[in-house]
Amino acid sequence: MASLVLTPRFPVGRVSSPQEIGLKDGDVPATPLAPGNDPADRELLERHRRGDASAFGAIAERYSAPLYNLAFRLLGNREDALDLHQEVLLKAYRSLHRFRGDAALRTWFYRIAVNTAKNRARFWSRGKRGPTLSLDATAEPGRAMIDRISDPRPSPEGAAYGQEIQVRVQRGLDRLPLNQRMVVVLRDVEGLDYREVADALGISLGTVKSRLARGRNSLRRDLADLLERDHHDVS
Amino acid sequence: MTCPEFIDLLSSRIDGDLTPPQRVRLEAHLQACADCRRGAEQMERAVAWVRGLERLPAPPPPLRLAGLAQTRRSAWGALRPLALAASAVLAALLAWEGFEALVTPGPATSPALTTSTDEMAGARDSSNANPTLAAPSPTSAGPRVLPAPAAVPEPAGELDPRLAATLPAEPPASTPAPGPLRPSEPASQEPVYARLHGRQPSAEQEDQGAEPDDAGSVDSAPAPGGGVRSAPGEPVGPATTVWIVQPDAGAPTPSGATPPAGTTGRPAAPSHTGRAEAPSATESRPAATEVAISIPVVAWVDADAVRFGDPGEEPPGELDRAGDTDAGTERAPGADLVRRGAETPRPDADPRTGVTPPVPLERPRMALPSAPDPDAWRLLPPLSLQITIAADGRVVRVSPLPWPGPREVAEALAGAVRDWAFLPAELAGEAIATRLELTIEFDAR
After folding, report:
1. Pick from A53, A173, A219: which is nearest to B105 by CB?
2. What is the pTM (predicted TM-score) of this model?
3. How confident is the prediction for chain A on average, in pLDDT?
4. What does the pLDDT read at residue A170?
């Protein structure tokens, strides 16, 4: 029987080939490297399965910011994003033992997040929560969106794009139907490729492309006045 | 193609996902159509804006992950902040302090519970303790019969690697036949699980029992959690049997094989340590058959106690709890177990191995140790225990498998499971001792 092969330490952020990670002929990894599954993730997963209590903390640290950004772009406000973010991490903690490594851990986290967000959207749509916070937040008078999306320390990117663009783009995302918004956010905000988006949402590649096309086109129309102005400014 | 049809291609154009013919036709159209050209430019810029949205940092306060590897003295106590935060239905900010507490406790990799508190204390101190099985004492080790790994039927993708890892890697040069399971006990029509249950087994009974490795490490200590006692349990549904090791002749027996003549007909256990030891003429230890069975259990946590039941079962209501007895009370009489054992439907035998899985008959409630907030329990990931069930239905050994949750919880639950009673597994119509995995999932209502 093949014994469990512990993953050596690798540079974070890229997938190594078996030769690169020092496997020799005849060595059999416990599980093959799933496409897109980061070796560092695999090592952390292995530690978690061995009962290393610190491993999940490291995993949470890796995915905390991406999950929070995803949640914020999907929900449109900090409070709900924070809530979703925490719920996703707790769900992951409770169920990480079921993760078998046949998909990328990142995709698995995103899948939990979008499913949780979908459930919440259903909850809101049944009217159990009263006025929707996420989708209508930008319409609230006297509460500028930028107050909620900007960090007190503006980044160079934020300054470059300008406050108005940031606000309008987020508003445009908020106005998209949830299924289109999820695809646009996963693809264009989180940078997943088509296959990863399809895996995270549990939909086909064709559905990903069509939803992305419709979502981007709606966004373009929603931002038309700003795009025209920007075009004239540039020219 | 019309302009709207070309517009539909603009998204794929941004991602470079057009086929060559589509690209040629689209670019030609864009050259000719000013509206579509402007639409393409606008979509590119809109997508660039989305991609340039400001990235928010991880929620404050920042993770202090550097300290996560530390093992705190009382991990369970450290879980309380999480419990308090989570009790607000996770709506409020779950402070990272609390989350850190959740993941900080040392791994529950304590070895099997033993009769000796000194041993347990020693195990706690050992950071590299074998998480699955206690190392047997050399002086008390019985005969070990190792199967030929190549002959073990092992369905791909179903075998839990933790259980698989307990299998011996190499067969011994020679594999003597094990002694009979209970050589001195006459055949009886009465189910032995009922006769023996409910009292501390004597040394003689221990020898007659089915502990495989080392009778000296059989856990007969009171449950650390303290609370045991008689709440009638419902049988768990059919478990998943994957494979069985039949070590009669030093090699696994395929499904349906009959035990060799000259034995009692009961299989003996392979070693879990991968070591082969010849039996002495005067010492013949009973053995357990290791089966890849996982019994799922759900734990409902209330303010004062943990109750066990089947997944999908409704949690017990107030009336059901009224009959609960607390620690120190007498267990259900054996006759009651006999009756329930007779009434309990048997799950189907595994077609490949012929083993009928054991069924829990009695799962007494367990008092909450140190009574932390019950919500803290509900956040815990499932705990897997490796248990050995004797042919009389008693649980004779419990070992928590690696678990990121608090060690105290794992030990308390292992102690509680020690007091469960099972309808034992059967092979060819006879009760057999088995070693298997029990997974406790905490109710997350």
Report:
1. A53
2. 0.52
3. 72
4. 94
Nearest residue to B133 via CA among B270, B245, B247, B236:
B270
Q: Measured between CB atoms, which of B57, B69, B75 is closest to A65?
A: B57
Domain boundaries, chain A: 39-234
Beta strands (DSSP E) in B260-357 are: 289-301, 305-309, 355-356
The DSSP secondary-structure symbol of B232 reads B
B164 close contact with A: CB closer than 8 A: yes
Task: Report the pLDDT value the prediction gives residue B374, as an integer from 0 to 100.
Answer: 63
Look at residue A85 in the predicted model and tell me its pLDDT: 87
Q: What is the mean pLDDT of residues A10-18?
A: 29
- The answer, yes or no, to whether residue A228 has pLDDT greater than 80, is yes
Say whether residue B88 is in contact with chain A using an 8 A CB cutoff. Answer: no
Q: Does B8 touch chain A (CB under 8 A)?
A: yes
Q: Say whether residue A33 is in contact with chain B using an 8 A CB cutoff.
A: no
Q: Which of B52, B55, B161 sits opposite A69 (nearest CB)?
A: B55
Question: Hey, are the CB atoms on A54 and B52 less than 8 Å from each other?
Answer: no
Concatenate the DSSP letters of all residues of B13-81 into one string. HHTT---HHHHHHHHHHHHH-HHHHHHHHHHHHHHHHHHTSPPPPSPSSPP-GGGGGPPPS-HHHHTHH
Taking chain B (445 residues) in consecutive chunks of 10 residues, what is each chunk's mean pLDDT? 84 92 92 92 94 85 33 38 37 34 38 33 35 32 29 34 37 35 35 32 36 33 31 30 30 34 35 33 56 82 81 71 50 63 79 84 80 66 89 88 82 90 87 88 71
Res B326: pLDDT: 47
The amino acid occupying position A87 is E
Checking ipTM against 0.85, whether it exceeds it is: no
**Would the CB atoms of A155 and B55 count as touching at under 8 Å?**
yes
Contact A161 B52 (CB under 8 A): yes
Nearest to B63 among A61, A94, A165 (CB): A61
CATH number of A39-234: 1.10.1740.10
Read off the pLDDT of each residue in A113-132 and give the average, rounded to a whole number: 66
Per-residue pLDDT at B150: 32
- A116 to chain B, closest Cα gap in Å: 13
Pairing mode, strands B366-367 and B359-362: unpaired
Give the 3-state secondary structure of residue B294: strand
> CA quadruple B345, B348, B350, B352: dihedral positive or negative?
positive
Q: Is the CB of residue B339 less than 8 Å away from at least one CB of chain A?
A: no
Look at residue A99 and give its three-state secondary structure.
Answer: coil
Taking an 8 Å cut-off on Cβ atoms, the answer to whether A54 and B15 are in contact is no
DSSP state string for B345-414:
PPPPPPTTT-EEPPEEEE---EEPTT---HHHHHTSPPEEEEEEE-TTSBEEEEEEPP-SS-HHHHHHHH
- Judged by CB atoms closer than 8 Å, whether chains meet at A68 and B90 is answered as no
- Would the CB atoms of A219 and B102 count as touching at under 8 Å? no
